[in-house]
User: What shape does this take?
Amino acid sequence: MNGYLGETEIPIAETVYKDYTPAQWAMLWIEKWGSIDGAHHKTWVLDQIARILHGTPVIAKMAKWDSGDQELRLNLGEPTPEYLQWAEEMKEGEDGPNTYDYDCGIAP
Assistant: This one.
């Protein structure tokens, strides 16, 4: 049997990504998810990059199975106030606040 045991958060410092800069994280997101078909998925990648470049932390979790298999999973933490302000500013235009929509996309 190959039962899933769950995920445990681990410090980025204990991963191969320990010295990554925001630019390297952004490039990793592009490499991993940027080629997935669908405009809604590409929009998600762009939003994730904006979050990374505005200081949203990358969270590492190790998923484990009873077979001994494990997988490192990367996600983003809670968005920073800087990102939230930027996303609001993206909606401003010639007609004031909320002239435009801001779409976060859909994760692949």
